Amino acid sequence: MRYFIVDDDTASRKMLKKIITEGDLGLVIGDADSGISSLSPIATMHPDVVLIDFLMPELDGIETIEQLRKKGYEGQFIMISQIVNKEMVGEAYEKGVEFFIHKPINRIEVQSILRKIAEQFRLQDSLLAIKESLANITPSKPIYKKQSVKEIVYSILSDMGVIGEVGSDDIIAMMEFLFDQHDSMTQLPPLKELYEAISTKSGIPSVNIQRESKAIEQRLRRTILMAMNNIASLGAIDYMNPEFEHYAPRYFDFQEIRNQMIQMQEGRKDFAKMKVNNKKFLQVLYLEVQEKYNQTPKNR
């Protein structure tokens, strides 16, 4: 199960992530501190379940659900709230919310609800398979249009669980810039030049370019660290996990991933000490995006 968390309370988001991760309930692929900032990543990533706070500034939980439905999101919602009254519950049910998590957050309650919703998904899949079998239905093959660079990068970062990290926007901007300027190259330009080019393109005044370049470098490092930790978590749970098998040896120093897996299995989690290679990550990402971008769209 893939989860996305929307809550303006940082502590609540961290607690929910911890409960999901430590309980082997699935993967948190992103989070947001407001309804507005959650719209784009959720509509793009299509998580299975969105855990969303009822009371938030600008867009509350109900309004955010309405906006996401209009954008075509068809997943499940779980409402998080300190206050539960009949009017709120009724409105939430009308919008398709079936489950509520009460604040302060309780581990047992969260685990129980997430297991129920996972079982609900499994039942729906089983019923659909039975229906297709009985009716001898062969699903029609959709025609897939060519993905944009942004969509491809979103998909890869989503697999790594870092779409919610601030550096993900920098990574997407770098890939789009590289494809605009050098869509057939095999080697990246020096990272310093790339950071400066992205800073300039975003409208940063020339006197602040150096400072913004340093900030990009730090955001990138933080995002890659989180990706390494997430991939190591997948490997620690299931060494044959397809995302782990694909990303761990390609994008990172595998020994660093392996060391982190050992720490997790021993109950220690200090991923800040992992060595990060920004150049390797961006180089491999660029080549993979290039390969997927140049594939001919076809039925599958």
Could you list some keywords that capture this structure?
300 residues, alpha/beta, Rossmann fold, 5-stranded parallel sheet
Distance between the termini: 24 Å
Low-confidence stretches: none
Characterize the main sheet. Answer: 5 strands, parallel
Q: Secondary-structure element order, as H and E?
A: EHEHEHEHEHHHHHHHH
Taken from the alpha-carbon principal axes, the silhouette is globular
Number of helices: 12
Structural class based on helices, strands and sheet pairing: alpha/beta
* Proportion of strand residues: 5-15%
How many domains comprise the coordinates?
2
Sheet with most strands: strand arrangement: 2-1-3-4-5
Radius of gyration: 21 Å
* Mean of residue pLDDT values: 85
Please bin the fraction of helical residues. Answer: 55-70%
Protein name: Response regulator
InterPro entries: CheY-like_superfamily (IPR011006), Sig_transdc_resp-reg_receiver (IPR001789), ST_Response_Regulator (IPR052048), YcbB (IPR013972)
Keywords: Phosphoprotein
GO biological process, one term: phosphorelay signal transduction system
